[in-house]
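2024-03-11 09:14:02 INFO receiving multi-entity request
2024-03-11 09:14:02 INFO entity count = two
2024-03-11 09:14:03 INFO echoing inputs for audit
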Amino acid sequence: MEWMSLLLDALWAAIPAVGFAMIFNVPRSALPFCAAGGALTYGLRDVLMHAHLSIELSTFIAATTIGIIGVFWSRRYVMPRPVYTVASIIPMIPGTYAYEMMISLVRMNTEGVSDVLLSRFIENGLHAVSILFAIAFGLVLPSMYYTKRKQPII
Amino acid sequence: MVVKVATMLLEYGAESRLIEQLSSRLGVALGCTSIEMSLIPSAIVLTTLIGDSSVTSTRRAYEQPINMSIVHQIVTICIEAEQNPRDIMRVERALANIHANAYPGWLIIPMIGLSCAAFSHLQGADWAGFFITFVAASVGMSVRRELSRRNYSLLIVFAFTAFVCTLIASLAFFEGFSTTGHIVLSSSVLLLVPGFPYINSMLDAFKGYISMGWGRWAQATLITLMASLGIMLAMGLLGVQGW
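2024-03-11 09:21:47 INFO inference complete, emitting structure
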């Protein structure tokens, strides 16, 4: 049952990946890969979080995985890597954290600074920033490995 | 010609390393000795060396919506040019044939609505919230398309879209229609996340193009700030309660 819900969540995550891929105007042939990548990263992150890893660490691992897969895909289909990778990590964007952070900021402005609000602001903000960095660093890592070699990826 | 390719890549949002590699490969394939370039976010300075003589030219890059399929077509052209070196006519013809491959509005608007609704579902919203998110994000996306078509500044487009999205999403608070109003509000503005500029800036900075990285990062941050400004305006206007 648990695995079922994980799988379903991963399928839900494929939808935003495709939608955002469309905003970036990726070529039609790449859309299925974006969907697969989105489902894969989200599912992997869920599984890792089930294994009691922190959300940042599991995001980082998932982003690295899609980065490595993106290298293979881009070689095979002659496509710049960000086409696959950026769309795939979209479902992991920490939108809710960033939003909560902003809300507490606005409330501090209107109601005055209190301890609860301040701690909520810092907590959510830290979460959002660290997840963003985990995503970015995870995506960069595979290509940093390849920049060591002189030969270009595609 | 090479500078034209490089400018197009920069305008449509390729990462710096790709721009530099592709232009120099294309240059070599077309018979230059080497290509040297320097990039800043709004312009390109490019020198072509042919034997002992060199030509330097500067091009301004204008802001364009990110379009990965154009980048992909340019990549394909460059690789083709490498396989048939010195065939300038062929490359020219291929470059003239590049098309934008824009998705039609009737497809992209519901798709974005569905994406943001899927976000809200993943965060645990109920079905009423799902529906409101769908409507809010679809309307937001059509607003964004309309405004972009009329050539407003990107920042204004984002602020106004966020404003509209939040206004519609606030319906969730109306008479307890949905129990998960926060999630609806936060996920209906997710269509404004500037994912590509952020990731590009990170990639650039990590690969040694510090100034490009900073430039793109500043641009992405400005966009985010403007979007949150729109959200705050809408909230202030409605006095959304309950948070």
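2024-03-11 09:21:48 INFO post-check: Chain A touches chain B through 47 residues (CB under 8 Å).
2024-03-11 09:21:48 INFO post-check: The first helix of chain A runs from residue 2 to 23.
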